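In the previous chapter we treated chains in isolation. Here, by contrast, the input contains two separate entities that must be folded as one system, with a combined length of 642 residues.
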Amino acid sequence: MFFRSYSNSTWTRRTFLKVLLAGSTLVASSPCTASMSRESRLSAQVFIGRTGSYESNLRNVIERGLQELGISATEMNGKKILLKPNLVETHMASAHINTHPLVIRAAVEAFLSLGARQVVVGEGPGHRRDALHILEESGLGDVLYEDRIPFMNLNEQVGDPVQNLGQCTALSTLTFPAVFRDIDWIVSMPKLKTHHWAGVTLSMKNLFGVLPGLYYGWPKNVLHHQGIHESILDIYATLKPHFAIVDGIVGMEGDGPIMGDPKPMGVVVMGRNFPSVDATCARLMGVNPHNIPYLRAAEGWLGAINEAGIEQRGEPIRAHRQDFALLDHIPAQQGLRLNE
Amino acid sequence: MNEIMNPSISRIHCFLSELFKRVLSAGGVADHLHGRFRVDATAWAMMVLKTQDLESEVVKVAGDRLLDYQMSDGRVVIAVDHPEAVWPTPLAVLAWQNSDAHYDAWQRAVKFLLRSTGVHWKKPDNDTVGHDTLIPGWPWIDQTHSWVTPTSLSMLALTVAGYGEHSRVTAGADLLLDRQLLTGGWNYGNSSVLGTQLRPFPETTGMALNALAGRVPREAVAPSLRYLQGCLPTLRTPLSLGWSILGLQAWSSSPAHTEKWIYETLERGSRYGGHDTASLCVLFAASLATKGLESLVRHNVD
């Protein structure tokens, strides 16, 4: 189920045909490198919802976002949905490392209210084999137990290799959990954070966590050796996940993804097209998405990152932009600032 | 000296009963109740079942099943279509230890560990990670860097196999000491990134302490022992609690009364439909051993 047809994605038929027709010229290069020179012909809608705190009615915010983005009960009816939060590590007074449990609860309620058959939560933390410990210490374990929502440790799931459709890395295949065959919709639920290797970590980087540690290790060092930006693109291009809900209520600035400082933003960002969602998040953080290598490469291939290609719903970016601290000693964060 | 403690009979029955439900008719052990065969679950189950001096046929057949996952160069992989995922090799060495029926496989796995290493390079002066990237250890996945868990387990496996003085094991100890956090403990294996000290994890700290026991003076790991002693009472997941107890045991620093925590951890498994087999076996090992994992496996040998 998770290998969607491009015809159902944000790709237009024209774009798809363009890539197919261009196939002969792409043989010598990958879709990844070829895309960098193409102009964007994609467009997407991204919703920014405002909320005061985690104690606010988050379900209402998410439901409004789903409505604004045209996600109807008809589309959701009977679907089994996987919510993939960002669970990395836990530490006292560092709740801003992980996607907040109440955002996940709100998403569960919103999807179920639209008629989803089942919602499950799955994550494969990149640093720790003991995912259960992160689940419990983050508070998500209690929320899922109370709501009777199953948790899948994606690191421990067996899987089968499938062709790498991105071809940005040298990996000929990627191995996703076999249980994804029973999933109709994959929803990435990252935290709005800076990152010491990637510049930012948002809905696309969050997908590292779907690859089982059984085959990629702890950390998922296979991907680091192949290139973080290249791996991000390959995973997204091959998995074709369906939706993103970014927890930007309290983000992380500076030395993310684990050692940074909390950054209250009061927003939830949602959309079907991940490059567009991440580009919007970057602008909210005062980061120029064109200076993030994986987003620049995705433009015109996997999604739109130009402002002109993104139809903004809900709150305007300008009203909520707060420049995240970018550190001089972190190379990946240099030169990212979005000019006024 | 008795290096295997005697937890209550009911506790042993509880563990064994749960474990035998996961033994597969085709041989080996499933990853979960009603789950599928898994190499690491099978190796761990063999290690703990051997301590009970029973069901030797189950252990023998489980050991046979592991043979299906050994490649021609001796590595034991998590799946045959992922020959790069070499991390179960030290577990297989520990599981096959002293098994006449699996001697050849054991020997080939040992040789693989002795000649394999992670990818290592000389870091430039302005490099961003704090550790010495040249010290050889073992990786999770072939052709990637060496990390704390596979290095610790490979050191333990080679030590039990009689190669404790080998230069690779000595280098492994150097790697672990180099990556120990200044504040104590280990994480996956990066002590600092871009000048920022990272935070420790209980399970990897427990593994590293097991691997270093008897090799370095106590002062060298004292902050790590303090870290584990501090967090132990709060741990209620099998991997973290089990490895923490084993790590402290290896340095004769485990609290006397861990039974209540082990019981609570087992009970908490019902929230998740039961714990996975490998984690359960780590907890069982912690419950049985008195001086760390090595003592448990050596009892199997003796």
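The domain at 9-301 of chain B is CATH 1.50.10.20 (Glycosyltransferase). Chain B has one domain: 9-301. Compare these points with the single-chain example from earlier in the chapter.
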